[in-house]
Amino acid sequence: MNCRGCGTCLSLPLIDLGTAPPSNAYLRPEQLAMAEAWVPLKVAVCEQCWLVQTEDYTRADALFDADYAYFSSYSSSWLAHARDYVAQMVERFGLDAASRVVEIAANDGYLLQYVAERGIPCLGVEPTRSTAQAARDKGLQIREAFFGQQSAEALREEGWAADLMVANNVLAHVPDINDFLRGFSTLLKADGVATFEFPHLLRLIAEHQFDTLYHEHYSYLSLTAVDTLCRRNGLEIFDVSQLPTHGGSLRVFVQCAGGPQARHPSVADLLASEQRAGVSTPAFYRSLAPAAERIKQQLLGFLLQAKAEGKRVVGYGAAAKGNTLFNYAGVKPDLLAWVADANPHKQGKFLPGSRIPVVAPERLAAERPDYVLVLPWNLLAEVSEQQAHVREWGARFVIAVPQLTVL
After folding, report:
1. Please, which residues bridge with residue 125 across strands?
2. β-bridge pairing 219-220 and 52-54
3. 350 strand-pairing partners
4. What's the CA gap between 211 and 207, in Å, rounded?
5. What are 296-311's pLDDT values in tens digits?
6. Domains along the chain?
7. pLDDT in tens, 245-285
8. Which helix (H) or strand (E) holds 381?
9. 52-54 and 39-45: which strand pairing?
10. Whole-prediction pTM value?
């Protein structure tokens, strides 16, 4: 396979997680009698531009289909993050009723609803029918399409040249990352700004976040790689912030090449920090595979011991990262009975691969399990606060990444 960014032949492996179905392909009850498509889950590193990427085995339109079940609005902390972002961007860039805001991967309108509240014209681009309809139900304008240079040209002709473009947790999800970025240089106004948020590769490696690797994530991004990608596609980074979201993310501010914004020292500082960490050396990438093996053994040891002791373990948060973890470790319903999730679009379905049932959170109080394994460990504080009542009967929260911890 050649690098998605620069075309160089890939020869440096990061990790081989065996085979798994797509992590967001939740099963309806009638699908339990059917075979699932299990495909290799391998990740490699480009030694030319240092873009980390999942090897090609699945098509984007098969991963992000009409039944796509990830809805952003079911996390209160993520909604607060979106609201704060809008307030910051309005103040920093002077957005008003004469501005145009376009969000790529608008999902269910979790962010654009706060733009619309301020009377700022906005448009969302979202390829998955389920979430696009949820955004429309909020009164938002949505184009149901995959974004790239061609769709950007069409939107510009419609009058949607943008003062601000937003792309949260989507840069990693696109198979043709160059075409995607050219779409931004096409649709941005000459003085327009785009922001990208994505999990930071350095945190992934340092904290052994191998469960964030799945087929829907085509790329895993350092600032080093994104800086190269942007320059290749007519964009330049002028600022960067480090965020706590999704286990440690970057918010990168870009403009068209030659734009009016001066480059902030934060960009050079973080690029230098990545070089000191070794992001441009093969040795940097060698720690993840053995860490994943250790985490798998810890999780299986905990689940087997709990079963031997007659303890009941359930999960909370039917997150894609949990599906990577379960399918790599071989966890099935005999070791973990069910997973509760607040998203009604997931309730009544089954996790891909493991086929563990997804239930409503009310099941926790009804069955009183001994342990609750929080799969979206990045939302541990939110989940432990929302479900604090489990402590009334002595239940304990557990996380598996970066190491098995019983809280």
Report:
1. 104, 143
2. antiparallel
3. 27, 357
4. 11
5. 999 999 999 999 999 9
6. 72-285 (3.40.50.150), 288-406 (3.40.50.720)
7. 888 999 999 999 999 999 999 999 999 999 999 999 999 99
8. helix 380-386
9. antiparallel
10. 0.91
